[in-house]
From TrEMBL:
Co-factor note (free text): Binds 1 Mg(2+) ion per subunit.
Family per record: Belongs to the class I-like SAM-binding methyltransferase superfamily. Cation-dependent O-methyltransferase family.
Required co-factors: Mg(2+)
Family matches, as InterPro entries: Catechol_O-MeTrfase_euk, SAM-dependent_MTases_sf, SAM_O-MeTrfase
Name used for this protein in its record: catechol O-methyltransferase
Ligand binding (substrate): 163, 189, 218
Organism domain of life: Eukaryota
Keywords annotated in UniProt: Catecholamine metabolism, Magnesium, Metal-binding, Methyltransferase, Neurotransmitter degradation, S-adenosyl-L-methionine, Transferase
Molecular function per GO: catechol O-methyltransferase activity; magnesium ion binding
PANTHER family assigned: CATECHOL O-METHYLTRANSFERASE, CATECHOL O-METHYLTRANSFERASE 1-RELATED
Pfam families registered for this protein in UniProt: Methyltransf_3
Sites where the protein binds S-adenosyl-L-methionine: 61, 91, 109, 160
């Protein structure tokens, strides 16, 4: 799994970026703008999946684990959702298309280039009314959610950013009183690249009830998993 990631993320990507004089993320956006249906979030999601499975691998949640995300969202029916790690906007669009009327998603991205691409992706999908993109480090934005962004508590949190931030940000969400009894956390890539510290923390914490969903790394046959944690209060 690690070798495959190094090949796709570092070697192949850098060569292609140099030849084409643009980033992989820009190529994904261009493919969507040219091939997907404007205002149709399902078309946008399917088009990104097509590009990343056939042309260039990218770290979206992907369709297989995306179905686990969909199922969790349908169970939770969140009014206020938080995503940590927007990347190109794939999962933000995927989440937004399932939100009930009046519900909204706050999505946090540290990388300005990714944020700019995600903003265009979200607008092209027609879900900009449901999604607010917050740019900056998660550890700075989480403490601002209550006052600056008028969040009372979060019904659903999708962790898909730096794996070493999963644990401290989960602790920060609790310290900032952003979780209520029944709030659901869903963490991606807990096997590859892996989040062993987070799994150890969450599974041994009496305040959380955990479920593991074995799956595969996006667009590959490498084993991966998602971890769901329900906050018990």
């Amino acid at each position: 799994g690690a070798a495959a990631l190094i090949w796709h993320e570092i070697i192949r990507e850098k060569v292609t970026n140099f030849i084409m004089n643009q980033s992989k993320e820009q190529r994904i956006l261009n493919f969507v703008l040219q091939n997907a249906v404007r205002g149709d979030p399902c078309s946008v999601v399917d088009t990104i999946d097509k590009y990343c499975s056939q042309k260039e691998w990218a770290m979206n949640v992907g369709n297989e684990k995306g179905l686990i995300l969909d199922k969790t969202l349908e169970e939770v029916q969140p009014s206020v959702a938080l995503e940590l790690g927007t990347y190109c906007g794939y999962s933000a669009v995927r989440i937004a298309r399932l939100l009930k009327a009046g519900a909204h998603l706050l999505t946090v991205e540290f990388n300005p280039e990714f944020a700019a691409i995600a903003k265009q992706m979200i607008e092209f999908a027609g879900v900009q009314d449901k999604v607010k993109l917050l740019e900056g480090p998660s550890e700075e934005i989480i403490p601002q959610l209550k006052k600056k962004y008028e969040v009372d508590t979060l019904d659903f949190v999708f962790l898909d950013h730096w794996k070493d931030r999963y644990t401290p940000d989960t602790i920060l969400l609790q310290e900032c009183n952003l979780l209520r009894k029944g709030s659901v956390l869903l963490a991606d890539n807990v096997i590859v690249p892996g989040a062993p510290e987070f799994l150890n923390y969450i599974r041994n914490n009496p305040r959380f009830q955990c479920t593991n969903y074995p799956s595969h790394l996006e667009y590959m046959k490498v084993k991966d998993a998602m971890e769901k944690a329900v906050f018990l209060g």
